[in-house]
Amino acid sequence: MIDLNADLGEGFGRWTLTDDEALLSVVTSANVACGFHAGDPSIMRRVCELAAQRGVRIGAQVSYRDLAGFGRRAMDVPAQELADEVAYQIGALEVFARAAGSGVSYVKPHGALYNRTVYDADQAGAVVAGIRLAADAAGGGDLPVLGLPGSLLLAAAEAAGLTPVPEAFADRAYTAAGTLVPRGEPGAVVHDPDAVVARAVAMAVEGAVTAADGSRVAVAARSLCLHGDTPGAAQLALRVRQALAEAGVRVEAFA
Fold first, then answer.
1. I want to staple 166 with a disulfide (CB 3.0 to 4.6 A). Which of 149, 176, 197, 240 is the partner?
2. Cβ-based neighbour number of residue 140 at 10 Å
3. Burial of 114 (0-12, 13-18, 19+ CB in 10 A)
């Protein structure tokens, strides 16, 4: 059993990047951009409405405040400021999720922030502090956190009483250490659809993937991500879901 998530709502004003409607027909969880790397209030509202109509879980994809760089540029943000910005983004999305009859079910950092929280205890702790603030403001319950297996982010989330959800990427290359190959390096993104499908099945069935150096790396994931900004992402996501079903894997949102 595995969750299938995608990054959605990654547009701004008249500019659109992700095929939200098509992807919401395939995925079980939607990582919705909250305005800091992409997205605006109208896009957030529309994606939440579509997700709620189709029974897809809504997640807040929080990021550094970096519209120009799509949240993929390294930034140094003071811990308290970052915690506040994370809580702010979750709160903004919660308004539209609730208006659609749903709610924010989990949180996933985006881009540079996601990768930074793998090894940076200060930034990981700040992200979790922001999530904990948002969860407490909503009644003190759990707000699961998606992150890379073995990351400091997931360790901090668990220590704060939040459910850690290990995640894998079918369309990203891995290092031998189990981290993602930086986007600036050749081959960081897997573009061959057949390879993406095969990697998705291997991750779900075998719990492993072939790293960039040819070694076999363990990937214990409960959720599988496909990037919504990849050309043909919706069709690729459908192929992945069909291949998982044929391999006997049930695609279902994480508990």
1. 149
2. 9
3. buried
DSSP secondary structure string for all residues of 56-91? PEEEEEE--S-TTTTT-S-----HHHHHHHHHHHHH
Instruction: Output the six-digit token pair for 43.
Output: 């896009």
List, in sequence order, every residue forming a beta bridge with 6; answer none if it has no partner: 30, 226
Could you tell me the two tokens for 133?
Answer: 């603030």
| Residue 16, phi then psi, degrees to nearest 5 | -125, 150
d(CA 85, CA 146): 18
User: What is the C-alpha to C-alpha distance for residues 155 and 153, in angstroms, rounded to an integer?
Assistant: 5
The residue written with tokens 């609730």 in the block is: 98
Distance CA 48, CA 38 (A): 15
CA–CA dist 156, 152 (Å, integer): 6
Which tens digits make up the pLDDT trace of 185-201? Answer: 999 999 999 999 999 99
- Report yes or no on whether pTM surpasses 0.90: yes
Which CA distances in Å does 187 have to 19, 36, 125, 171, 190? 24, 27, 31, 10, 6
Tens of pLDDT, residue by residue over 196-224, are 999 999 999 999 999 999 999 999 899 99
Beta strands in the chain (DSSP E): 3-8, 29-33, 57-62, 104-109, 145-147, 164-169, 208-210, 216-218, 223-226
